[in-house]
Design brief:
homodimer, 19% helix, DNA-binding, Arc Repressor Mutant, subunit A, elongated, 2 domains, alpha+beta, 10-stranded mixed beta sheet
Chain lengths: 203, 203
Amino acid sequence: MEKGAITPKQKAMLDYIREFTESVGYAPSQREIADHFGYSSLGTIQNYLVRLERAGWLERSWNAKRALKTIGAAPAGGGYELPMLGFVAAGRPIEAVESPDTLEVPHTMVGRGENFVLRVQGDSMVGDGILDGDMVVVTKSSHANNGQTVVAMVDGEATVKHFHRVKGGIELRSANPLVPTINVTSDNDFRIEGIVVGVIRHC
Amino acid sequence: MEKGAITPKQKAMLDYIREFTESVGYAPSQREIADHFGYSSLGTIQNYLVRLERAGWLERSWNAKRALKTIGAAPAGGGYELPMLGFVAAGRPIEAVESPDTLEVPHTMVGRGENFVLRVQGDSMVGDGILDGDMVVVTKSSHANNGQTVVAMVDGEATVKHFHRVKGGIELRSANPLVPTINVTSDNDFRIEGIVVGVIRHC
DNA sequence: GATATTATGCGTAAGTTATGCGTAAGTCAA
DNA sequence: TTGACTTACGCATAACTTACGCATAATATC
């Protein structure tokens, strides 16, 4: 299905609908879209939606609430730019970067939903070929399977480790014999931030 | 569809339209094209577009805004498609792949000139975080500096190693203590294929 | 070399679509 | 019934595309 041409403002609205939906799990209302872009009239939104649907970028259901559905992948917009949220190293909180930096990654690497990039510090995962300075591409998730490499927060400290469910809790295992396993119990504030889906290194 | 000949200036405009569209996800307006090339008159742009369309390089829709569409080879998606030439492992020739496969890599990773991708086999470079199955992005070059990671052919066999110039020849050092250094002398048929500029791993 | 044709770039204004305001009716669920 | 949404319609203006003319430079043809 070949899609029609869209204008910059139409694309911006389409992108907003897509990001909002991925972020909260349901589509924005026309009022929310209007507020986001600073428009006072719902007629404006309606007009945009009609045009986006006509061009084949949007699906709408008759009179259904919050039923906007973007069609297909995001329009080409250069490389797939993921937010680089900061640095992750054993024992430290994710360190926010000053500017909203991004990293270009291949489309094929990005998992469904929200993705972000972290720069690895330290050598706790060298056995897995994840070196200090590498970028890890992370698909946001609060669940993980055994053996998966995850970004996790333990008592406010971020780390990249192998996730293992064991009796009595969770083990976060490193891939470096010199770095000890983290045992997570119910006493710990523990949260999985996402699954590592890729590693990128510029030599 | 055989395309007509176009002049250097027509090609420059066509390329601009293509790159702009790939970059931002919608086509440029005539005003934007005029500003980019420093023309004051929209009639100029119109004339160019008419000619490019006539020659078969451009598609336009009647009175549609931002509907310029270049015809012909333009890699879809945001990544940079590199040819995957095959596999590289210690002691084997580069194994050609059946179909002309490509891998999407970030623009930012690609060096100037010709680039290609190789899939690594073996663990001679694990110390450098280059694992079996990883893709290495290679910028084609026949020269290398000391310490650089190169793809080289030695007596018809391809390998990824560290390049070191020493007395009496060249050493190709691995990053795995179990894999011996290759000493290259004038008796060997030796050639550098390129420099490793990046590593990509899908987890 | 002379002539014809094409490419280039300026300008202008008409024609068409996108944008944004507003409003009220229609629809659905609580 | 009410509130929260969607839909349809009208109006005005801005932004875009199109068509046309003019002049000159560059290229092709005889």
